[in-house]
Write a structure and sequence with these properties.
By secondary structure, the chain is mainly alpha-helical. Helices cover about 95% and strands about 0% of the residues. It has 1 helix and no strands. The protein starts with a helix and ends with a helix.
Length: about 110
């Protein structure tokens, strides 16, 4: 009877040790996955911060380029307006001179 009890106790001990090893393995896997998850989260947070930084820099660059283009466009418009005004004044002067010459010519021919 004692040998049977001892055998049963040994079997129970083996089952308990096996169970403990299984639980330890599961716990180790859980810790490993949790650790990997934390590392992954840190990497994702770092990548997100880098992305936010890049987006911010891109927006700044675009904003500066828009301002530069607006300045260039305004300067070009000012030069164009100035040139157009000069052409208008030249055209009016030439037209006035032509009209005066035609008037003088008409006066000379009508006095004959």
């Amino acid at each position: 009877y004692l040998s049977h009890v001892k055998s049963l106790n040994d079997s129970l001990q083996e089952i308990e040790e096996s169970h403990q090893m299984t639980l330890q393995t599961i716990e180790n896997q859980h810790k490993s996955k949790e650790s990997y998850s934390q590392v992954l989260e840190k990497e994702m947070v770092a990548a997100l911060k880098e992305l936010q930084s890049l987006v911010g820099e891109g927006r700044s660059i675009i904003s500066r380029q828009v301002q530069r283009q607006q300045s260039i466009m305004q300067n070009s418009l000012n030069v164009f307006t100035s040139n157009l005004n000069e052409l208008e004044m030249t055209a009016k002067k030439q037209l006035t001179e032509s009209l005066n010459a035609a008037d003088d010519e008409f006066d000379v021919t009508s006095s004959l």
